[in-house]
Amino acid sequence: MENLYRNPESLFKDFLIENKKWFQDSKSTGQFLLQFIIELNDVDHLSVLDNEFINRERAIYLSKPNMDFHFIGLDECFSIQENSDNRFLRIEQHIEKIRNSFRTNLPALDRVPLFFASIKFLTDDSDEWKDFDDSRWFIPESALFRTGSKNYFIFNLILEENSSLDKFVEKFSKRVSSIFNNSKKGLSNSSPNVKDISNDYPKEKKRWKNLVSEAVSKIGEKNLEKVVLSRRIVKKINGEIPLARLVQNMASSYPACFNFIYKRGKSFFIGASPEKLITFSGNEYEIDSLAGSAPRGISDELDKEIEKQLLKTEKNIREQKIVTNFIIDTIKNFSNNYSEKNSLSVKKFRNIQHLYTAITGRLKEESSVYSMIKELYPTPAICGTPRQQALSFIKKSETYPRGLYSGLMGWVNLKDQGELFIAIRSILISANKLYAFAGSGILDSSDPEDEYKETEIKINSILNFFTNANKPEHNLG
Fold it and tell me: What is the C-alpha to C-alpha distance for residues 307 and 316, in angstroms, rounded to an integer?
């Protein structure tokens, strides 16, 4: 490749000159979005997290370890904020406008994230979530992207008629040098101190179980078919967060999940979500229906027995079928064809297993993936059904804002490619407090004690991120 023989700054400057001429020849008075990509080997992503990522005002880490997909986005080049009911339509309009003014030096490189998306479950103005917008789709200024055996450095910029090319070259050079130098530094040895704020868990348990009983009664009155209720545990946390060790722990424990860290200001939103909403490329898409849970067994024999029971339990099967039926009823209005990729099966994670169906389809020529996402989200898997009745019960019953927990996160690009997931199994760190979230789907047959135990499994799985964050990397499969 050409970048093996010429320095990155020279290549970047040529790219700018070429596009400045194109800009002038087009006689445009607007802006152009440019994306410059080079291979950047010998860069330790973990060191970048501990020495570069942690110091940025806004940064995002996304990873699917089992797919060898890793993305670190730093700072912000451009953003879209839309909080209205028509936010997906407005976001699509913004993206279409940008599409006509976008240039990249590597157009053949596939599935490169451009926008990072984050949408809260419900709008809120709470203190703990104040660093995160209700809805924000932003393009990082610089990024590291690893896919397969290739490592890339990405630099995004807005080019205007009077832009100084030399200033862009200077900034580009500084960003490359900073990332390269920081990647050579060691990993953080810090170990944050996490403590309980309150020992009043029996009272909290009783309150939540009473809430489940109330929901079961409402469902019995036919006002609801299902509602997803969450729990929140609050702890005190002090000390620097060892991001690299945290990422290592998430990757080894949850390699098939969407591992993420979203930093804004001094706040962090961290998680390992098993729940994909949608992956799309062109008109093709795949959606996961994930609902119904059981713990893992302490032996292979016991684990298989629990799996068999999960596949037979009426409550779990009905809960998963509600989600699948909702997805099918929604996508058929947008699709030429669709099908269940697999019969009802079980997807296993380190300490929990879920009933699972993958649904694939093809959009109609006149349909929009963003319009379909608007109708899909929030699904019954994290809200309930009917949607408005479930949302009303959640707003009335939950005494705290969910924020980005059970919100929508992921990435999209201008090739009509993207992957969005539900931000569950997650933790918020803000103002020296750690907020851990988990939820459970409630039906008329739900047992409050069983539902509480399910949330305990989920909460402990994410608190273990920090229990093991300063231990050596381990392989749990």
Answer: 12
Helix axes 387-397, 201-220, angle to 10 degrees: 150
Where along the chain do its domains lie?
A: 2-182, 193-467
The answer to whether the CB of 442 falls within 8 A of the CB of 212 is yes
269/136 Cα distance (integer angstroms): 14
pLDDT at position 293 is 92
Tokens encoding 272: 């390992």
Q: How confident is the model at residue 55 (pLDDT cuts 50, 70, 90)?
A: very high
pLDDT of residue 2: 43
Alpha-helical (H) ranges within 254-381 are 300-310, 314-331, 369-376
Residue labelled with tokens 């729990």: 231
Strand partners, 430: 433
One DSSP character per residue, 440-466 reads EEE-TT--HHHHHHHHHHHHHHHHHHH
> What global pTM score does this model have?
0.94
Residue of 423, 338, 334 lying closest to 381 (CA atoms):
423
Decide if 40 contacts 180 (C-beta within 8 A): yes
Q: Which element (helix H / strand E) includes 362?
A: strand 352-363
Dihedral angle sign, alpha carbons of residues 94, 146, 109, 168: positive
For the segment 281-291, the average pLDDT, to the nearest whole number, is 97
CA nearest to 275, candidates 260, 263, 296, 262 = 260
Q: What is the pLDDT of residues 449-463, one digit of tens each?
A: 999 999 999 999 899
Any idea which residue has 């093709």 for tokens?
A: 284
Amino acid at 207: R
List all residues 6 or more positions away from 308 whose beta carbon is below 8 Å from its beta carbon. none
CATH topology of domain 193-467: Anthranilate synthase (3.60.120)
CA distance 284 to 348: 26
DSSP, collapsed to helix, strand or coil, labels residue 411 as: strand
Rounded Cα distance, 416 and 422, in Å: 20
The set of residues, in sequence order, having a beta carbon less than 8 Å from that of 458 and lying 6+ positions away, is: 352, 424, 425, 438, 439
* Confidence bin at 468 (pLDDT 50/70/90): low
- Residue 370: enclosing H or E segment and its boundaries? helix 369-376
SS3 344: coil
Could you give the CA distance from residue 326 to residue 245 in angstroms, rounded to a whole number?
39
DSSP per-residue letters across 240-267: ---HHHHHHHHHHH-TTSEEEEEEETTE
**Contact predicate 60/71, CB 8 Å:** yes
d(CA 134, CA 118): 8
Percent above pLDDT 90 for the chain: 82
If you search the block for the tokens 């002038």, which residue do you land on?
A: 24
Of 277, 258, 215, 269, give the one whose Cα is nearest residue 444. 215
Measured between alpha carbons, how far is 91 from 365 in angstroms, rounded to an integer? Answer: 19
